Amino acid sequence: MWSMSDDRPWTVRFADILDAAAKIDEYTGGFTEKDFLIDGRTVDAVARNIIIIGEASARLDEDVRERFPDVPWGRIIGMRNRLVHEYFRIDDSVVCEVAADYVPILTSRLQSYLASTDAT
């Protein structure tokens, strides 16, 4: 049954972020920026998964975000907010840049944290 509960562990939220990041990688693999920008479905799918990443990040407890200060949580959440609330001003090339340049870095960091014994 679906629940509105916010009590999911941070490791599960990290997994949600990593799942969304993997989808972004799957959708954009082999794409150039030009390929990306002319494929509206891919732009929409990637934007949706960036929103998921931002929402999962926003739902992390503040103390968890503070434990991982090298992740730009505020920027991630801000991107989610722009995609949701300012959709009419979104530059698809920025979505492409986030997918190509920033999501892989985030993925690497979160995978490292989850693998680390210090992260628990």
Short description:
Helix 1 (10-28) packs across helix 6.
Account of the protein in words:
The chain has 120 residues and is mainly α. It has one domain (23-113). It is built from six helices and no strands. It has helices spanning 10-28, 33-38, 40-58, 62-67, 73-85, 92-115. Helix 3 (40-58) packs across helix 5 (73-85) and helix 3 (40-58) packs across helix 6 (92-115). The longest helix is centred in the last third of the chain and has 24 residues, at 92-115. The two termini are 28 Å apart. The model has no long low-confidence stretch (mean pLDDT 92).
Q: Could you say how many structural domains there are in total? A: 1
Give the H and E element order.
HHHHHH
Relative strand content: under 5%
What share of residues is helical?
A: over 70%
**Number of strand segments:** 0
How would you classify the helix and strand content by structural class?
mainly alpha
Distance N terminus to C terminus? 28 Å
Instruction: Give the biggest beta sheet.
Output: none
Instruction: Write down the Rg.
Output: 15 Å
Multimerization status? single chain
